[in-house]
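Form P-L/3: holo structure prediction, ligand iron/sulfur cluster.
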Amino acid sequence: METLNEKYHEIVEEKKVLIDQSFRDSVDTIDKKGKSNFLFPKKPKGKLYHYRTIVSLVYLAIFFTLPFIKVGGQPLFLFNVIERKFILFGQIFWPQDFFIFAIGFLASMVFIIVFTVVFGRVFCGWACPQTIFMEMVFRKIEFWLDGDAQKQRQLKAMPWNGYKARKRITKMAVFYAISFIIANFFLSYIIGMDEVLKMVYDGIGAHYVTFTSLLGFTTVFFFVYYWFREQACLVVCPYGRLQGVLLDKKSMVVAYDFVRGEPRGKLKKATVNPDQGDCIDCLACVRVCPTGIDIRNGTQLECVNCTACIDACNAIMDSIDKPKGLIRVDSEENIEHEKKKKINWRIGAYSTILVLLVAFLAYLLISRNDVDATILRTQGQIFQEQPDGRISNMFTVKLANKTRRDIPMTLKLVNMKGEIEIVGNNLTVPAESYFQSPIFVKVDKSQVTKRKMKLLIAVYEGNKKLETAETTFLGPAE
Ligand code: SF4
Ligand code: SF4
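OUTPUT (holo model):
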């Protein structure tokens, strides 16, 4: 970031250290011809990597288990965009609930922005499905099959022979098989696990269109995890591209303590130069970086906050008897002013906003009606004078039952006294269905004091009021 770099230059200027700024001229993952430079990050290890592995295992367990969990015979989560059927936490959401999605979407956007401003890109490194699958599934398998970075480089450099072909075919087959499994599970979030299993039992011939799409998605996953990798975060991900405007010098990010680390120098020189900083220029932090950057150059768009460089540097600091944390999660401002306190008023205030937003979203989901009622005046009808002297209006009642049970409903007038006559005499709305019926509202003429009056009709299930719908009752001119 700019301030960090300014400060960095200041320090460098003061200490007369020559720095190489050539990293700004290129992206490590793209060569001069614009082709992708395949990276070989070293296998990370350390406390944070261990925690990240645990978080990923929990995450993967949830991802692969959720499609099997059912509530009342329906999936716990379903995002069926094809049939416009959405289930969240076992609750069915209908197109009528669109406003909840719209408000929820806006609230989520605010959440993401505020979260990023305060906590940086921690989501990318620790919770994004792309990073979890890449670093915690495919990368681990790659280390297991091809060995650590050095062995992978050797394998790439060696001419094609039986050994290399076997290694490559094995890796491709394993990556494709796992991509196929992941694609199946993603599909189960869209059409439900029951449907996916049914297709498996029915065989490819009965569902060749779905199977072809599945292979298409599998190939995309395979391409991303076998070859495209960190480019998805650097080039494609819109969230990644926004970091430049979301982060500021108060944001908590993975950062190099340039005040403590500079001027850097090889370990042997440290013994003769007491002014030398703690960074021994060993490049351990660079070697483990999955996006190929040098975090010592300051916060960069490519950094996904995976924290692998923190582990790598802490191990080096341990080995040379220096305090850990030369690279750590901190704000640029804290590092610049050598502040120790990490929680400031902004983190407190923004975190409160985040909690309120989550509470608001939860409220929207919980307070949603089980039934949607719309009462519309029947077209072409004004009012009728009944033989008994009452005035009647004809309406069409439209009911949407969002629950998984049939609901026998009754209608009651709220703000007028009178009678509701239901054509067909039955208002039982089947589960997960729409229902519509004409109704007549008959009221005593004495109550019709205006030509147009507000009419409220409550929808009940037994004694429980489900909703109140509003319409207009027409009467003769005064
Ligand atoms: S700089 Fe560090 S935290 Fe950022 S991506 Fe590289 S290893 Fe991960
Ligand atoms: S791992 Fe630490 S000591 Fe080594 S180059 Fe990186 S910041 Fe410097």
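COMMENT: The first strand starts at residue 70 and ends at 71.
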